[in-house]
Each structure stands twice: as C-alpha cells, then as structure tokens.
Specification:
It is a single chain. The chain has a single domain, classed as Protein Transport Mog1p, Chain A. The protein contains six helices and 13 strands. A hairpin with an 8-residue loop joins strand 10 and strand 11. The N terminus is likely disordered.
C-alpha cells in the first residue's frame, strides 16, 4: 500500500486539473456553495470553498501581470496565453470566473436565443494529458439520442506554425459529472500546442447559438498568432 500511494495521488491530481476547464452546470437550489453564472442557465456552483477556488494575492498579481486576465479587452480582438487573434465584435469579454481560465467571452445567440460561452484555459503538461485523452473525455460529456456517445468531428492542421486540433461535438451535454443535462448542445474546442504548453479554446452552449457563431470561432482559430 505504501508504494502505491504516490501513484494514486498523482493520478488524482491530474484528474482534478484536467476537468477544471469545464463550465459548471446548474446545481440544486439548496446547495450552500460559492455561486457563479453560466450563460443561458440558472446560477452554477463551485463546490470548493472561496479560499481554494481563488489564487493567493501574490499568485493573482503575477497572473494578472503576465496574462492580463482581468484587463478588459477591446471588441474584435482576443489576446490570451501568448496568443492573439480576431473575434466578432458582438462577443463580450468578461473577467474569468475560475483561476484556471485565462480568458472568457459571452457569445450571443440570434433573436433572443440563449448565449454560449468562449473559455480559454491552460494547464501544465502532465503524463496522460494527451490530445486523444482529452478528445475521449469531451466525448463522454455528450450523449446522442440513442444514448451512446456521439462521434466527434476532428480537424488537425498547422496554423501559423502552431499545431491545432479542433473537435466538434453535439448532442445532450452531460457536463463533468453528468448530474445536470442540457439538450441540444454543441461544443467546438481546439487544442493549440504552443512553446509554453497546450492552450484549450472552447465554445460551448446551445447548438443553435454555437452554430450561428461557428464561423467567427473558426476565423479566430485560423488566424491565431504568437504575440511578439
């Protein structure tokens, strides 16, 4: 048992970090926890206490200085994790609601449809954090009408000397734990391999809204460049 404990702790730590880029889905109303919002849904919850969901003052200052995560960005341009690219001017920047996120935007729907959310996250490279493992994890968060996981559409290419892998999934969204379901959801998520590690750019929300903004998302990915 003593020799197995370090391996178990490492596996548990990776499981926690790999799932933190997922938006939280609506909890039961009587849950007493820190509340955050999710576009197009009732308030969502972070089960950790405020002291564990926020970085220390020194960490926050360093993060803000390096990534400008809490500096409002002008319409039409996105900068995050050493990358920059164009976005539609209708997408609204907001401060990241979780310290694993380096940037996020509210993506509006058409004619009053529920909005989606564009979230950018970064994680240190770790054993098991492969492209295929991430694709498998995202696929398990969706369910087709027959109850099976949907088949993702995968598009891997090099963009401005950056290796990118875009994944497209649609169906009933189960979230991380599968406790709260969202029908007719779609996710466009791209892994960008940069010199400093992997960057995850995820557009998630009602299928109608994501489809209406898919061209804007793909324009962002196709024009990403490393900041000088």
């Amino acid at each position: 048992m003593r020799t197995c404990l370090p391996a178990l702790l490492i596996s548990f730590a990776f499981t926690i970090s790999s799932g933190c880029d997922e938006p939280q889905l609506p909890p039961p109303a009587n849950v007493n926890a820190e509340v955050t919002s999710f576009p197009g849904s009732t308030p969502a919850v972070s089960m950790a206490s405020p002291s564990t969901t926020r970085p220390s003052r020194d960490q926050a200052a360093t993060s803000d200085q390096e990534d400008n995560t809490h500096t409002p960005q002008p319409p039409g341009k996105a900068e995050f994790a050493g990358l920059s690219g164009p976005i539609p001017v209708t997408w609204t920047w907001e401060p990241p609601r979780h310290h694993f996120r380096v940037a996020q935007w509210i993506v509006p729907g058409r004619e009053g449809a529920e909005p989606a959310e564009l979230v950018v996250t970064t994680f240190p490279e770790a054993s098991g954090n492969t492209i295929q493992n991430n694709i498998d994890r995202w696929t398990r968060q969706f369910r087709s009408t027959d109850g099976s996981p949907p088949r993702p559409t995968i598009d891997a290419k090099t963009v401005n000397e950056l290796s990118t892998t875009m994944v497209d999934l649609e169906g009933e969204y189960l979230g991380m734990g599968g406790g709260w379901h969202k029908a007719d959801y779609r996710m466009l998520v791209t892994i960008i391999e940069t010199p400093d590690g992997s960057v995850f750019i995820k557009l998630l929300g009602p299928a109608e809204t994501v489809s209406a903004n898919a061209d804007g998302y793909k324009t962002l990915i196709q024009n990403l460049t490393l900041k000088n």
